[in-house]
C-alpha cells in the first residue's frame, strides 16, 4: 500500500485528536479549536476536511467501528469451530482495546447522542446489524435448523455484550473488563446447552413414527 494522501493523513490526525480531546476535555469541551490544536492545525483549516464537529464525530465513530471490525475479522479467522467463532465475536467486542479510557470516552459520548442525531443513529444501526450478523452466522453453524434459538441467543448475547461493556466502561461500574468476557462466554454455554436439549425431543419425535411403522412391518 502507498502512503496516504495529505488529505487522508490530515483527516486521520483530526480523528485521533478528536478521540483524545473527548477523553481529556469531555464531549462538550472538545471544541474544533481544541481538536485542531491537538492535531497541530489551526481551527480554520479543519473546515477543509470536515464541515462541522458533527461530521468529525461521525467520522471518528466510523473509524472506531472499522477498528473493531478489523479485530473481529482477525479473531474469526483464527476460530476453528462455530462456538469458537461466537467467542471470537464476544472477545473482540469486549477486548482490552474496547476498554481503553480514550476509546471508552468516545463510545460513551456516541451512545449519549444516538437518540438526538439521525446520522449517529444510522451508524448505531449499522454497528448493531454487523454484530447480529456475525453472531447469527456462527450460531447457525452451531445450531443448524434451529432458527428460533439462533434468533434468541443472538439477541441475548448482543444485549449482554452492550450491557457488560457499559458497566465495565463506567468508572464505578463495579465489574472488571476481563470478567465481562467470562460472563458472556458462560451465557453462551448455557444457551447452547438449552437449545441442544430442546432439539433432542423434537428429533426423537420425528423419528418415532418411522420406528413404529418399521416395527409393524417386522
UniProtKB/TrEMBL annotation:
Residues 31-50 bind DNA. InterPro entries: BetI_C, Homeodomain-like_sf, HTH-type_TetR-like_transc_reg, HTH_TetR, Tet_transcr_reg_TetR-rel_C_sf, Tscrpt_rep_BetI. It holds the Pfam family TetR_N. It comes from the Bacteria. Residues 209-218 have a biased composition (Basic and acidic residues). One of its GO terms (biological process) is glycine betaine biosynthetic process from choline. Keywords: DNA-binding, Repressor, Transcription, Transcription regulation. Residues 194-218 are annotated as: Disordered. One of its GO terms (molecular function) is DNA-binding transcription factor activity. Pathway: Amine and polyamine biosynthesis; betaine biosynthesis via choline pathway [regulation]. PROSITE patterns: HTH_TETR_2. Residues 8-68 form the HTH tetR-type domain. Repressor involved in the biosynthesis of the osmoprotectant glycine betaine. It represses transcription of the choline transporter BetT and the genes of BetAB involved in the synthesis of glycine betaine. PANTHER family: HTH-TYPE TRANSCRIPTIONAL REGULATOR BETI (PTHR30055:SF234), HTH-TYPE TRANSCRIPTIONAL REGULATOR RUTR (PTHR30055). This is HTH-type transcriptional regulator BetI.
